[in-house]
Amino acid sequence: MIQRFIELGEGYSDLYELIEIAETNTHRLTKFIALKTKVNEKEVCSLAIVLQAAGESNFQPIYICREGVPEHSKRWNLFQDRASTHNKELTILEVKPSTEFSEKELYYHYLTGILRMQHIIPAWQ
């Protein structure tokens, strides 16, 4: 299984796109995730959804809005409400900020490892 993060933005208006992807793919929706961190002394979250691979594909997309949503904000509440609407638990994890990595790709490898270790996404098969 190949898992890849698809970044939509930082969670401002693009959060609505993330929610729309969840709404139009309810049959593939597996997880709602909030990744808490601190960037420039400000506590923020990355919000993400995990979909099952399409058809017989080996590609599992993880759509993410990176480090732009304050916890317990209107956008946070909207995302949490959507998880409830779809009978999914919102998984909350604390992670390092992307600013600690020299490349965004390294940050996403780090997140993939964390999600696999926590059994949120399957390990390689």
Layout of secondary structure:
Elements lengths: L1 E8 L4 H11 L4 E11 L2 E10 L7 E11 L4 H12 L4 E5 L9 H14 L8
On the 0-100 scale, what is the average pLDDT? 94
Query: Which percent range describes the beta-strand content?
Result: 35-45%
Q: Report the sheet with the most strands, covering strand number, pairing sense and barrel closure.
A: 5 strands, mixed
Low-confidence stretches: none
List how many beta strands DSSP finds.
5
How are the strands of the biggest sheet laid out side by side?
1-4-3-2-5
Q: What general outline do the C-alpha atoms trace?
A: globular
Q: Which percent bin holds the helix content?
A: 25-40%
Number of helices: 3
**End-to-end distance:** 6 Å
Helix and strand pattern: EHEEEHEH
Going by helix content, strand content and strand pairing, the class is alpha/beta
Mind telling me the C-alpha Rg? 14 Å
Give an overview of the whole structure.
With 125 residues, the chain is of the alpha/beta class. Helices cover 30% and strands 36% of the residues. The protein is built from 3 helices and 5 strands. It has helices at 14-24, 74-85, 104-117; strands at 2-9, 29-39, 42-51, 59-69, 90-94. A 5-stranded mixed β-sheet has the order 1-4-3-2-5, with helices on one face. A hairpin with a 7-residue loop joins strand 3 and strand 4. The longest helix is centred in the last third of the chain and has 14 residues, at 104-117. The N and C termini lie close together (6 Å). The model has no long low-confidence stretch (mean pLDDT 94).
